[in-house]
């Protein structure tokens, strides 16, 4: 099986995961897949930095926080590496560290595709959520709804609020969708970068 075919299969499995991944996973989703990601050969022509970022993303989409962290730490001078690093810290619950790494990533190109799609999705469901809840969570969702460029820090604030128990449980699914969307969009960017 070619590396591209193997990668296609891995990405398909990760993108079609059901149910949605937890905001703060406590174990690897698929241990066999995690080993397969680690053993994945480099794509022909891919830079080592691009492959490391891709593996950091694949592991994170598989809820393998420790392995993702190891890869992202290897490329802390790369915007994608910083972005993956920030996402990993958010998923482990280290929110201030997460925001530090988002700041280091800067205005990453993936943020330009994440923002509009997330805003559209929020727009379709915000009224039902807002009718039931008038709180800080709705303020954060409305702010995300009006972004043109994605701000990962806002979602981090919303997830921290959710995980602290200060938000209605009915918003958890919305946040899970948004986090998954962010992961999948950054994975797509990393995959394109690794394809050269």
UniProtKB/TrEMBL annotation:
Organism domain of life: Bacteria
Protein name in the entry: Uncharacterized protein
Record organism: Paenibacillus plantiphilus
């Amino acid at each position: 099986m070619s590396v591209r075919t193997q990668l296609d299969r891995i990405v398909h499995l990760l993108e079609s995961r059901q149910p949605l991944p937890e905001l703060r996973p406590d174990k690897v989703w698929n241990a066999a897949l995690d080993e397969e990601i680690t053993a994945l050969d480099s794509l022909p022509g891919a830079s080592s930095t691009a492959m490391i970022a891709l593996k950091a993303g694949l592991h994170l989409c598989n809820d393998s926080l420790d392995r993702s962290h190891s890869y992202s730490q290897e490329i802390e001078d790369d915007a994608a590496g910083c972005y993956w690093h920030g996402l990993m810290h958010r998923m482990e619950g280290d929110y201030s560290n997460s925001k530090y790494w988002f700041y280091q990533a800067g205005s990453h190109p993936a943020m330009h595709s994440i923002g509009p799609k997330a805003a559209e999705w929020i727009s379709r469901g915000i009224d039902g959520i807002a009718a039931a809840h008038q709180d800080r969570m709705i303020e954060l969702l409305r702010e995300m709804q009006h972004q043109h460029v994605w701000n990962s820090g806002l979602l981090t604030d919303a997830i921290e609020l959710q995980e602290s128990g200060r938000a209605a449980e009915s918003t958890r699914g919305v946040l899970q969708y948004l986090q998954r969307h962010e992961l999948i969009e950054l994975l797509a960017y990393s995959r394109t970068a690794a394809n050269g």
